[in-house]
Amino acid sequence: MDQELPKENWVEFLNSFAKSNEGKMVSLYVEAGEGERQIGENNLIAFEGDCAGEIVNGVKVVIGGEGENFENLVHYIKTPASIVYEENEEKGTIEKLAFTSQNGTKTILEPVDEDLVV
Length: 118
Prior knowledge:
- It is a single chain.
- By secondary structure, the protein is mostly beta strands.
- The protein has one domain (2-117): Distorted Sandwich (Protein Yojf, Chain: A).
- 10% of the residues lie in helices and 60% in strands.
- The protein contains one helix and nine strands; from the N terminus they run E-H-E-E-E-E-E-E-E-E.
- Strands 1, 2, 3, 4, 5, 6, 7, 8 and 9 form a nine-stranded antiparallel beta sheet that branches.
- Strand 7 and strand 8 (106-111) form a beta hairpin.
- The longest helix is centred in the N-terminal third of the chain and has 12 residues, at 10-21.
- The chain is globular, with a radius of gyration of 14 Å.
């Protein structure tokens, strides 16, 4: 079931989500125009908000590995308009987290091999 997060809960939700799912393998996709493309698959490291108080101007999604030989991928979501997550109610897990920017571009985060939790 899809659930849209109220804007006033974005910062708290993203901080909690990143902490609960740090190190889990995720796929990161971008949908723009008529196509969807995968931009990375790796361990979730963090969400970093570009915030002014409770106003979120942008969100950085950071995925990557640990140690000296890994390069992290940082994807910036500019001017997010909504954050929606798809929950598996039976398991109480997240099957997809989608950010939609004001220009209509969607950034989607999905688990690869381990369930994501709220």
